[in-house]
Structures are given as C-alpha cells and as structure tokens.
C-alpha cells in the first residue's frame, strides 16, 4: 500500500509506574499495544511498523499478528531507541520503498478511533506535507516562573497536539536525515526544517496514557477485543 503507520511503543513508561514497558501494560485482558493496533488495523489499509524495546520484539510480533488477522503480511516489527525521535527513525528505516504517506502514532494513544487516521491520511493525500490532529485547550493557562504566575496565556491561540501525525514520506525522510536537536513530536522536527504543518480535528479518545490516572480512564472507556 502507499500508506505506512509507524506505531512507536519503545518507551519505558516511567511515569506510569508499572513493572513492564508502557505498551505492554494491560488495559483489560489486552495490552496498550494490542488496543492501539486494533485501531490501526481498523483504519485505512497500511503497512504497520511497530517499534518496541529490543527485548520485546518477540512479544510485539505476536501481538501485531493477532491484531492483523489475515493481514500479517502488512506487519514489520523493529527495535526502538533511547528517545522517541530515535524510535521513529528506526521505524522509518523499515518503511517499504513504495510508501508515499507515513503516519507516526503513539502506542500510548491506545483508544484512538480509526476516523482520526482517515482524516490525517486524507489531508496528506489532498496535498499537505504535514498534518496533525489537535484539540482545543480546555484549561486556563498561566506562564509561570517557579511558584509565581507571570501572566495569563491566551488559550484561543493554542492547541493540544495528538497522533497519528501524517507526512509526505519524502519530507519526513529528509527531516530525519538532517535532524539535529531532539523534538517531542514529529511535527516539531518538520517545523524546525521549515515545513508548513496543518491541523485536522483530533479526538478526546486519542488521549495519551501517561499516568496511573490516564490508565484508569482508559480502563473505563475500553471496549473488549472479541476473541
Ligand atoms: O513518553 P511518552 O508517553 O511521551 O511517549 C510517547 C510515545 O513514544 C509512546 O508510545 C512511547 O512508547 C514512544 N517512545 C518510544 N521510544 C522512546 C520513548 C518513547 O517509542 N525511546
């Protein structure tokens, strides 16, 4: 296919405080990674590259093939790196030559609905080089200096960035080849390289499981994976 989804799942999950790497923590009977992959395989067809800790490549391969069903030919699994950016770079190196659109998705956004993938793919296919799903910021925001408020920040000009983030493959390859600094998402890397980044509506269900409270929220929202 001309689309690939890189699912980054190589984080340690320190802030979650579990005894396994985050993607391998259970939401219900199934892991964060397994739920994330359900969403990926319900989205428009794509090569699926899963990036995991080096000692979890076997487990991730099993889960990816379960999620893929009879589309196991679409699955690649590679070991990640010390930072998210290094993990994305590892995933990019496994993307097939004929792929033109690459999505990068956090496994930790395990309950992301398939429609978000479709919106991002459509926007790149329609001509944007870089597209991210965003949500309005709901909290009142302050700029602070230690324990003192410096000034309020106008939230109407801000948005919260989610994944999957989608890119024209050639633009993403170029940005990664020339990457100097480390960035917390791919849109920041591309923006630093001068690419215009567009937005599409995100989805509240695409929240990132980071803390124990996020995991509780996911447990309350999840629907079971059929046997
Ligand atoms: O740590 P954080 O939740 O921001 O990580 C976002 C995503 O990036 C997670 O899905 C995590 O597994 C992934 N990641 C990675 N390799 C790293 C660090 C994070 O694949 N070294």
TrEMBL record:
Source taxon at top rank: Bacteria
Cofactors named for this entry: a divalent metal cation
Region annotation 2-C-methyl-D-erythritol 4-phosphate cytidylyltransferase: where it falls in the sequence: 1-227
Pathway: Isoprenoid biosynthesis; isopentenyl diphosphate biosynthesis via DXP pathway; isopentenyl diphosphate from 1-deoxy-D-xylulose 5-phosphate: step 2/6; Isoprenoid biosynthesis; isopentenyl diphosphate biosynthesis via DXP pathway; isopentenyl diphosphate from 1-deoxy-D-xylulose 5-phosphate: step 4/6
Keyword Metal-binding included in the entry's annotation: yes
Residues flagged as site, Positions MEP for the nucleophilic attack: 155, 208
Reactions listed under catalytic activity: 4-CDP-2-C-methyl-D-erythritol 2-phosphate = 2-C-methyl-D-erythritol 2,4-cyclic diphosphate + CMP; 2-C-methyl-D-erythritol 4-phosphate + CTP + H(+) = 4-CDP-2-C-methyl-D-erythritol + diphosphate
Alphabetic keyword roster: Isoprene biosynthesis, Lyase, Metal-binding, Multifunctional enzyme, Nucleotidyltransferase, Transferase
Record flagged with keyword Disulfide bond: no
One GO molecular-function entry: 2-C-methyl-D-erythritol 4-phosphate cytidylyltransferase activity
Site positions per UniProt: Transition state stabilizer: 15, 22
EC assignment: 2.7.7.60, 4.6.1.12
Functional summary from the UniProt entry: Bifunctional enzyme that catalyzes the formation of 4-diphosphocytidyl-2-C-methyl-D-erythritol from CTP and 2-C-methyl-D-erythritol 4-phosphate (MEP) (IspD), and catalyzes the conversion of 4-diphosphocytidyl-2-C-methyl-D-erythritol 2-phosphate (CDP-ME2P) to 2-C-methyl-D-erythritol 2,4-cyclodiphosphate (ME-CPP) with a corresponding release of cytidine 5-monophosphate (CMP) (IspF).
Protein family according to the UniProt entry: Belongs to the IspD/TarI cytidylyltransferase family. IspD subfamily. In the C-terminal section; belongs to the IspF family.
Protein name (database record): Bifunctional enzyme IspD/IspF
Organism: Microbacterium gawkjiense
Organism taxonomic ancestry: Bacteria, Bacillati, Actinomycetota, Actinomycetes, Micrococcales
Gene name tied to this protein: ispD
